[in-house]
Design brief:
disordered N terminus, two-stranded antiparallel ribbon, alpha+beta, 27% helix, 121 residues
């Protein structure tokens, strides 16, 4: 994806809370930055390891149609952390759900795979 195709700082002209500066827009913008901008401090954990944004979601309007407004207290989450951002792999999640879904918090045994947080509860 060519960075020049995205104008992160130009208002979208959408009415109400869905436009530029909303929590939903900021979640989308952060996703795009993490995956496409090598100058982003988070790029090495996303774009740098091959995490991409599907073509459809390179448009904020399409992202908004697929995900809806970001609910209060939730953040954008990929269900499979080794897969890219797309409708079938993303949801809005709590911080606890995100913490449980990190790459480095799972312990696998012959019988099960659990997060460290679940084991401690």
């Amino acid at each position: 994806m060519v960075m020049q195709q995205l104008d992160f700082f130009k208002p979208l002209g959408l009415p109400g809370p869905t436009g530029y500066g909303s929590k939903t827009y900021n979640s989308w913008r952060g996703m795009i930055q993490r995956c496409t901008n090598p100058n982003s401090s988070r790029y090495k954990y996303y774009g740098g390891r091959g995490i991409t944004v599907c073509e459809r979601w390179r448009s904020f309007a399409n992202f908004l149609v697929d995900m809806g407004e970001r609910p209060e207290g939730l953040k954008l989450e990929r269900r499979d952390n080794d897969s890219s951002y797309c409708k079938n792999n993303c949801t809005w999640a709590t911080q606890k759900e995100q913490n449980n879904n990190r790459r480095f918090v799972h312990i696998a045994s012959a019988r099960t795979k659990q997060s460290i947080l679940d084991i401690c509860e």
